[in-house]
Amino acid sequence: MPYKANQSKRHHIPSQKYVVTNSAEYNQALRNRGRIDIWISDGIIKNWQSEQVHDGMGSSRKYPNSTIEACLQIRMVLKLPLRQTQGFIDYLLELMKRPDLKSPDYSTLSARSGTLGLTTPRFKKGENPTSDIAALAIDSTGFKVFGLDEWHSKKHKLNAKRTWKKAHFGVNNDHYIQGALLTSKDVMDFQVVDQILEQVDHELEAVTMN
Q1: Which tops the pLDDT comparison, 71 or 158?
Q2: DSSP bridge partners of 137
Q3: At 151, is the secondary structure helix, strand, or coil?
Q4: 127: pLDDT strictly greater than 60
Q5: Are strands 135-145 and 163-171 parallel, antiparallel or unpaired?
Q6: Three-class DSSP labels, 19-84
Q7: What is the DSSP letter of 147?
Q8: Sign of the dihedral defined by the CA atoms of residues 33, 38, 41, 42, in that order
C-alpha cells in the first residue's frame, strides 16, 4: 500500500540501524563457536601415569584413578566407544606436546570403570548413544501482558500499566517440550522443578537449569 491513510499523523517508530565496527573480532567470535576446547587440570597431567610399575604381588598401577576418571568423563561427553576414546586421548596428549604420556588402553578403561563404581553405557557403531540416557533442561521466558488500551496508549503516548508472566519449560535432549508451567514474574526456575518433573513420564538421570 504505497500511500497509507493519515500517514503523517501515525505514530512513527524509527527503524534501528546497527553497524558492525569491529568486523574482525565479530568474525572471529563466530568462528570460535565451532571450537572444541577441552581443559585438563595440571594436577591430573602431573600425576597422569607412574613409571615405577613392579611385577608380582603389591605392584603399583600405572594409571591412578584421576586419570581413568578424566578419560571416562571425556568419553561420556563426546559419546565415544572405548577404542575411539583411547585414540582421542592420545591425540590430545600429542597436541599438548607430551610424548612421554599415553592414554590407558580400552581394556584398562573398561576394567577400571567397574572398580571405581562408574556406570558408563556401551557406545557402539550403529546404536543411538542417547537411547537410554534421559536429561532435562529447565529454562524460562517472559511474556508481556497489555491491557485493552494498548493501541490508545501508543497513539497518545501515554504510559500503560503492563504486567509480566513467566513461562517455564522443560526440554529433553531432542529439544521437545516435556513440561510447561505459567507463573508470575517473581517465580524462579528452581521453585517449579517439582511441578515440571510431575509432567515427565520417563525416568531422568540429569536435570539442569539455565
Answers
A1: 71
A2: 171, 208
A3: helix
A4: no
A5: antiparallel
A6: CCCCHHHHHHHHHHCCCCCCCCCHHHHHCCCCCCCCCCCCCCCCCCHHHHHHHHHHHHHHCCCHHH
A7: -
A8: negative
> How is 123-134 classified by DSSP, letter by letter?
--TTS-TTTT--
User: What crossing angle do the helices spanning 106-115 and 82-95 adopt, rounded to 10°?
Assistant: 110
Question: What are 164's three cell numbers?
Answer: 509480566
Cα dihedral sign, 173-174-180-184: positive
SS3 content of the chain, % helix, strand, coil (to 5): 35, 15, 50
Tell me how far apart the alpha carbons of residues 88 and 6 are, in angstroms, rounded to a whole number.
67
Condensed to tens digits (0 to 9), the pLDDT of residues 154-179 reads: 676 666 666 778 888 888 777 778 88
Rg (Cα) of the chain, in Å, rounded? 28
> What is the residue type of 117?
G
The per-residue pLDDT for 58 is 46
Q: Letter for the amino acid at 132?
A: D
Give the integer Cα–Cα distance in Å for 173 and 177. Answer: 10
| DSSP element (H, E) containing 184 | strand 177-184
